[in-house]
Specification:
By secondary structure, this protein is of the alpha+beta class. Helices cover about 15% and strands about 30% of the residues. The chain has helices at about 5-20, 35-55, 165, and strands spanning about 60-65, 70-75, 85, 95-100, 100-105, 115, 115-120, 125, 135-140, 145-150, 155-160, 180-190, 195-200, 205-210, 210-220, 220-225, 235-240, 255, 265-270.
Length: about 300
């Protein structure tokens, strides 16, 4: 199929999806009105997002989250471990805490690897908040054991390429592409050093850098969203809207934003609003929208709620 015919087919599918959305949907956008660059860029972003979720170590491969509550835990898939893993060797090793650090000592003879080399001795277990997080591979590379740090607590995170949540992943459902949800916004700088309290889905709060907010208009009204990030750098937004629990994931969605231009403006593309990892697995720890980011607007763009296969 030629590029011209493929683009025509894609535009036709977009138009058909818009028409088929029901009486609650906005008026259909004529195919000719959809800019080809917008369609191609959005389609490419969605394809990359899907590929990321489907990766052997993507969020759909998450099979375990185990909080460290003692000074030391033996871990493995057999029932006599202090922490029983859903997958992996019966005896994997021991995780211990001490001297403001976490350590891992592998079971003798177990096949584990770190940075592509066999792991045979005790190592410092670096968390996701360290510059170089430790990733311990097992089951011939299909499984990954890592460490996360939330508040004053540590937990083991386990991923496996054969996880049912990955092998049975049903794909994503999105609202039709709509350029009207690609909105020019103003960046409003906050007080220098300002931070914002963000709670996660397991009830742990953290103070995040909150250098500024964005303001945008929709249907004649102005809305504001607080950002997470440092001044002059790309930003992250966790928000909830009128579709949360009514089409989109109940606990909110994420947006990645570029830094504003020299005039203090940026584009917010809600077609790229995406679900947090918790939409796909019960073993993730996702930030929740702060109260400031619960807006009285139905954002009918981006990803819809994920429907777990039955």
């Amino acid at each position: 199929m030629s590029m011209h015919r493929a683009m025509g087919w894609l535009l036709g599918m977009v138009a058909a999806a818009l028409v088929g959305c029901g009486h609650d949907a906005p008026p259909p956008v004529a195919p000719a009105a959809l800019d080809k660059t917008f369609v191609a860029d959005t389609a490419a972003w969605r394809a990359a997002r899907l590929e990321e979720l489907r990766a052997p170590d993507g969020w759909t491969s998450l099979v375990g989250l185990h909080w460290l509550s003692l000074k030391a835990h033996y871990i493995g898939s057999s029932a006599d471990n202090g922490i029983k893993l859903a997958v992996g060797p019966p005896k994997m090793g021991m995780v211990s805490t001490g001297s403001n650090a976490v350590w891992f000592e592998p079971e003798h003879g177990v096949a584990l690897s770190l940075d592509g080399k066999p792991l045979t001795g005790r190592i410092r277990f670096q968390s996701d908040e360290d510059p170089h997080p430790t990733l311990i591979h097992f089951d011939n590379g299909k499984g990954v054991l890592s460490l996360i740090h939330r508040g004053d607590r540590y937990a083991l995170r386990v991923k496996h390429a054969d996880a049912p949540s990955r092998t049975q992943f049903a794909g994503l459902d999105e609202w039709p592409m709509d350029p009207s949800w690609r909105i020019k916004a103003r960046y409003i700088a906050n007080k220098v050093g300002k931070r914002i309290q963000v709670m996660d889905i397991v009830g742990i709060g953290s103070e995040q850098p909150n250098a500024g907010a964005i303001e945008f208009e929709r249907d004649g009204k102005t809305y504001r969203l607080e950002t997470i990030g440092e001044l002059g750098r790309p930003m992250f937004v966790v928000f909830a809207d009128r579709t949360s629990g009514h089409g989109s994931y109940p606990a909110g969605r994420f947006l990645d934003l570029d830094a504003p231009d020299p005039s203090g403006h940026l584009v917010v593309d809600f077609n790229r609003a995406y679900n947090p990892p918790c939409a796909f697995t019960s073993f993730a720890t996702c930030p929740l929208p702060p109260p400031e980011n619960r807006i009285d607007l139905a954002v009918s763009a981006g990803e819809k709620a994920y429907k777990v296969p039955r």
